[in-house]
Amino acid sequence: MDLDSIKKYSQYSYDINLQKKNALQKAASEQIVVYQNHIFSADALTICLVKTLSQTHKQFFMLDSNSNPVMVSDPDDFLKKLIQANQQSLHTYHQLIERFKKKEK
Amino acid sequence: MDKGILLYCFDTELTSYQKIANRCVKQIEKYLKMPITIITDQNTFEAWPNRPTCDYNIIEIDRANTKLGKPWYNVERFKAFEHSPYKVTAVLDVDYFCYSDKILKLMESNEDFLVHDRAHDVTYRQSMKYDRESMINLVWATVLIFKRTQKVKNIFDTVGHVKKNYQHYCNLYRISYKNYRNDYAFAIALNQVNGFTHTEFIKDSIATVPTDVKILNVDDEGILIRNGESTVLLNGQDLHVLNKEVANV
Prior knowledge:
A: 3 helices, B: 25% helix
């Protein structure tokens, strides 16, 4: 058993996990969207809700991130902004993971 | 003026906050592009080389406070409502460096008063956990975003009252940290003004660089830190840098 190489691998795993955790927090910050003066998170749940409601309603009500009600009058525009923020944040995260994969090879 | 940034900057015998403020101002200029007002004292103002082009308001300060055994004079924040010339204000710690336009976005919100209730250590050693040190959840007065409304005036007036009677409120909320701390004063004021119910928070967590990590490089794109054997580049997100050595990097 080569303890030195295990120690090195452990340190490497720690570094990767640390950077992944920081990148996820960064993604959460990047997902903050202010729409019609209300704060939302452009996460999967919000996107799915807006997409689902927009299929049957031209305008609808939902809650912002502080549980205030908001009337969404242009669901397409809102959805576009949410998806843009969501994909931008995940693109950055994806690039980081790809860098790790290359390092591992 | 519609929107702007308010900074508090008071040098102590041990720390040159003006140097840190210079970096903070650069970051605001790059990512927020907003007018800045700096509240400072005469000593700091006069000894400030490369003083950035901002509006300055020079005030008399209370020099009695300490933080972790060191002099720390940043106790004037409860007057931010009075000091701010803006309709919408973001008060930032001078060691809060913007690497995104998040603050700009939040200032578009219709909330009267916003503050963070979460912060995390970027080295993930749980050094930002304070949940066992009082009966009230801490808020992070590092970033305060507010409008000029009666509710917000009430909050700041209450912070002033809490500051004046701080030991009483420490006992009431069983706060173990006895020196004045803005974070607890705002947490108490929000709790009182909101009728002991909930408060609106900024939903993400403040990325915090703790005091004991080595800062290898700081530029307008990010910060390179070293913790033990790990080197981490932090960019694209706002950072609260607790290690005051950042002034000398």
